[in-house]
Amino acid sequence: MVLPDALKLNLSHAYILVGEAEERLAVARAFAKKLNCQSNCNDSSADKICLSCKVFESGNHPDVFYVTGTKTTGIGVEDVRSQIVQEMTTSPFKYRYKIFIIDKAETITPQAQNALLKTIEEPASYGVFLFLAEHVHNILLTVRSRCVTVKLGEIKKTSEHEAFAEEIASRIAHLDILEVMALYKRFEPFKESRESMSGVLDMLYLAYGRRIIEAGTANLTPEKLWFDSIAALQHTKRVLAQNGNFQLAVELMLLKLNGAM
Ligand SMILES: [Zn+2]
After folding, report:
1. Which superfamily is assigned to 5-152 in CATH?
2. Which helix (DSSP H) or strand (DSSP E) does residue 208 occupy?
């Protein structure tokens, strides 16, 4: 699990993770596990797993709390008092942090959010609060202002774009013209989302940049096509930013990346 940068830096004690149910819970769990880890277990060179991570995986970590609503109306004042405020009055059972994972945070009633304010504003040093939500609309501004909001989903999208760009960059010079023109179909889905297209172009740019740098480090002469490709990508980005014809711009770019032009 790759954590978003905002979580890597570990700069707050209260976060709102906004994203799809599965992803936000997975990120929260990975983060909680890492915060209480005693020996960098995520580091691939770690040969043994620390006690905290072991206990975490078993699902019975004594210092990680999953806060849930006991009523159908959402997470209420009583839930917040008994599961968070009360719990925060004592130090962790054994590990560094007491971590509260509060899923469906958008269902915390306004009264309950107010009841939480003081706790998240001046928490004991061991308190970490992870609010997980589909959206932030129902979360009071007073709560939001005390939290770092992390929007998830971006990472997944970025890595998809990266894989796509890498595939294009590694194949395109070996294709014949018909195959190159057929590649346009793969770009068509981005036609309606200029933002995604811009992300793909950035990743292509990086893919060629990497090739040039790697050649340099290996004392090899970078191929001229790579430099031409970078120029072509910059040009395409400009054309699309000025609302130029999408298909024309992409086909021209593909021909240039192929070396046919
Ligand atoms: Zn560990």
Report:
1. P-loop containing nucleotide triphosphate hydrolases (3.40.50.300)
2. helix 194-217
